[in-house]
Amino acid sequence: WMKAGLNAFIGRRKKKRDFRRLWTVRINIAARLNGTTYSKLINSLYLKKVNLDRKALSNLAISNPEVFSNVVKFVK
Fold it and tell me: Does the predicted model carry a pTM greater than 0.70?
């Protein structure tokens, strides 16, 4: 019982890490298609005070590439 509970606890923490890594990879690929890199994009978003989290950016990059490219153009 204890081992299963510990593994479940670890898995819940690991899931958050895995999804953030997935979102980062997706954003980086889409950003490179738009002529920038992940780190430059995130920094530009921070400097322009655009409050889009990585999950939302990742979903934009996949479902609406046109909107994502508009976001990239806005923060450049």
Answer: yes
